[in-house]
Design brief:
With about 325 residues, the protein is mostly helical. About 65% of the residues lie in helices and about 5% in strands. The chain has a three-stranded mixed β-sheet with strand order 3-4-5. A two-stranded antiparallel ribbon has the order 1-2. The relative contact order is 0.09.
Length: about 325
């Protein structure tokens, strides 16, 4: 190999190595991604490098037409990194085959440019190939860097959106839990105590029993929330039949509502201190297994509403029984006599 051709090969080989690095370990989406309007993807750049090299070294230097479709190079997509690397490898191998026989004096030999029909030298063609390939390998490197930056930005934005979503959910949970004390105060101040104490049917809870249970469980929720924030590995289950408060014959429902308001205010303050990142904290429920803080917080308003509905069903019964033919509209809520 002549002395002038050897460093040329060394430089061309190095450029192809850098192109391979730019393509390495990227998904298809990255290979077809474009940084912006009028800018080329990695797939297009790789295909264009290979096509241009084959054109100038084959069609011009070796005078062997390649049948190149230049426009097709700029439509390249859905090719794997391996397929693009193979195309570049074939182009480099072809360059080695053609140029390995060149002598220094051949660089001055004239050829007709297959692009515009003007006379050029082999040396001019080779310089064009090197400059063109170097330029587009640089574009490939920049495109890969921009893709990696884009991915980091996308992931960062996704985290922000996730945090906003979690924060919005926290605010909704806080709002839902915040309305319950006023509901129970209004109920107790306006509904006769006999109705509040009346179970809808034997073995079912009255509105009073529902409120007592909500108060009992408020302590449980507070304890569980603290267990998550303290990174405790587990927390116990709660059995309302065995661990719930004993009901009294003549309760002070106003005092119960006041107690619930006080406890719920404490709970809301605890929730206000939760960060979105805390929602993924895990602990093990004695019966249900591994759960997250987010799951437990969502159960809280669901539990509230469940027993609010249960209390409402208990209060509905005398009205359903007295509404005559309209009772059929409440069949989902009525208890048998």
């Amino acid at each position: 190999m002549e002395s002038l051709v050897r460093p040329y090969f060394e430089r061309l080989d190095k450029l192809h190595e850098e192109a391979g690095i730019a393509l390495a370990d990227l998904p298809g989406a990255a290979l077809d991604w474009s940084p912006g309007a009028g800018m080329n993807s990695l797939s297009v750049l790789a295909a264009h490098i290979a096509g241009s090299e084959r054109f100038w070294i084959g069609d011009a230097v070796a005078e062997k037409p390649s049948g190149r479709d230049r426009e097709a190079e700029f439509r390249s997509s859905s090719l794997s990194g391996a397929a693009l690397s193979k195309r570049l490898r074939a182009s480099l191998d072809y360059a080695h085959d053609v140029l390995s026989t060149l002598k220094n004096q051949d660089l001055e030999a004239e050829r007709i440019s297959p692009r515009d029909g003007q006379p050029v030298t082999i040396g001019w063609c080779l310089a064009l190939v090197l400059a063109h390939t170097a330029s587009h390998v640089g574009h490939m490197q920049i495109t890969r860097q921009l893709w990696e930056i884009y991915q980091r930005d996308v992931q960062y934005i996704a985290r922000i959106i996730q945090d906003i979503t979690m924060l919005t959910n926290l605010q909704t949970i806080h709002a839902m839990l915040g309305i319950s004390p006023a509901y129970w105060h209004n109920l107790i101040q306006t509904i006769p105590i006999d109705l509040l104490n009346r179970p809808p049917a034997p073995g079912h809870w009255s509105a009073y029993q529902c409120l007592q249970h909500i108060i009992d469980v408020e302590h449980v929720f507070q304890s569980r929330l603290q267990a998550f924030l303290d990174r405790q590995e587990s927390f116990p289950a709660f059995n309302p039949d065995a661990e719930g408060s004993q009901l009294i014959a003549e309760p002070s429902l106003t005092d119960l509502a006041d107690e619930f308001s006080r406890l719920r205010a404490e709970s809301l303050l605890m929730i206000e201190k939760i960060e979105p990142a805390d929602l993924s904290l895990e602990s093990r429920h004695q019966e249900l297994g591994l759960v997250t803080l987010e799951m437990m917080l969502n159960e809280w308003p669901a539990h509230d509403l469940n027993h609010t509905i249960q209390a409402g069903r208990a209060l509905m019964q005398p009205f359903i029984q007295a509404c005559g033919p309209w009772a059929m509209y409440f069949s989902d809520h009525a208890f048998p006599d």
